[in-house]
Write a structure and sequence with these properties.
Oligomer: single chain
Number of strands: 14
Number of helices: 10
Distance between the termini: 19 Å
Strand order of the largest sheet: 8-7-9-10
Order of helices and strands: HEEHEEEEHEEHEEEEEEHHHHHH
Length: 373
């Protein structure tokens, strides 16, 4: 139940983020006297709308985004002569730049808020050996290996075979790689150590058969005060930006395309480091909640916001960063860019992203990422 609630909350939050992003474009444009003709959440057929002043607000059938229609930004829809002074292109470059950058900026602000609240109220996991939060008694109708050998909530796994102080990810990977084989765990319980032998079994998780022993993991956490949360939250935004740059370079480089082809056309299993769509991230959020880590979706949501914000700033149309790049070219050249010539580039970038996203969504459905040991 907690997993379903977390997935719903995650997707609802994404829609709210879209509204905030577009509202930032809208608000700054209005502040500079630019005419905004439409403000819609979603794409496709119009479901509901109303008009207030010169702007139409509403919902469309496909909740996969949103947009504001700013007068003068569509080169194929010239504004009436009376609206020309209030079009996007009629305003100074610095005002147009602020209208554009306002949207991506909201993602970094939201990421900071998510990180700060998470650090202050929930706490960042401390690098220690896996801590068992709960034991799953049954897996696919049979006693789980963990229940069979008597593992308990509160036990700490300090070694798995020859791996000392494994991380949660190491334990999951090792479990998946040794289905049907005996695995020796050294466990710390109430100040003493004991050794148990478990045999991971295949169990169904989110429609996928994976190796499990039947435990839900947690980690020791360290919270910070208000000031500490603010400073650490800001630092985490910076760290996440660096991680996003590295991730984008890996995903959209030769290594990333090769890995995507391998996942699509072979039986290679997914890894936590593989790219995921909002479908996959939503599932991971559900797994975290089911494992007793509901509020860790704040951290995940912060990471997603940094990724979206940085992606939007890439200097390629139709991203916001592409519009900023065009404004920079106009500043250097001293004259406006013919946006009709930019449309083919925007279409090519958009087509690539659609194909890439559909491929990753397919993988998230056919080969979902599972983090349960």
């Amino acid at each position: 139940m907690a997993g379903t609630v977390a997935q719903i909350a995650f997707f609802v939050a994404l829609i709210v983020v879209i509204v905030v992003h577009e509202a930032a474009h809208f608000g700054v444009a209005k502040r500079f006297g630019i005419k905004v003709e439409e403000f819609f959440v979603g794409f496709g057929p119009r479901i509901w709308s109303f008009r207030r002043g010169e702007t139409e607000y509403g919902l469309k059938a496909i909740p996969a985004g949103g947009y504001v229609k700013i007068a003068g930004m569509n080169p194929f829809q010239p504004a009436p002569p009376e609206d020309l002074p209030r079009t996007f292109g009629a305003k100074p470059i610095w005002q147009r730049a602020l209208v554009i950058v306002a949207g991506p900026a909201t993602h970094f602000v939201l990421a900071f808020l998510c990180f700060a609240i998470w650090l202050g109220a929930v706490g960042q996991p401390v690098a220690e050996s896996p801590l068992i939060a709960a034991v799953t008694q049954r897996l696919d109708g049979q006693d789980s290996p963990a229940a069979t050998v008597g593992l308990r909530a509160g036990d700490r796994i300090v070694a798995v075979d020859g791996i000392e102080d494994p991380s949660n990810v190491q334990l999951v990977r090792y479990t998946r790689a040794h289905v049907g084989e005996s695995v020796t765990l050294r466990v710390e319980r109430d100040g003493r150590e004991l050794t148990v032998t478990v045999t991971p079994v295949l169990a169904t998780v989110d429609g996928q058969r994976v190796g499990r022993i039947g435990v839900i993991l947690d980690a020791a956490r360290e919270t910070t005060g208000v000031v500490g949360s603010i400073t650490a939250g800001a630092k985490l935004v910076g760290t996440s930006i660096v991680g996003t740059v590295q991730s984008l370079g890996r995903i959209f480089g030769p290594e990333g395309f090769s890995r995507l082809a391998e996942l699509l056309f072979t039986d290679a299993p997914r890894e936590p480091s593989d790219p995921a769509s909002v479908v996959g991230i939503g599932r991971v959020a559900g797994q975290a909640a089911s494992g007793g880590r509901f509020w860790d979706i704040l951290w995940m949501f912060g990471i997603v916001n940094v990724y979206i914000g940085f992606l939007n700033l890439l200097p390629l149309p139709p991203f916001d960063g592409g519009h900023l790049a065009i404004l920079a070219v106009e500043k250097v050249r001293g004259k406006a860019v013919d946006m009709r010539k930019v449309i083919p580039v925007s279409a090519a970038v958009a087509a690539f992203l659609v194909v890439f996203t559909l491929a990753v969504v397919y993988l998230d459905i056919a080969k979902p990422i599972n983090l349960s040991p």
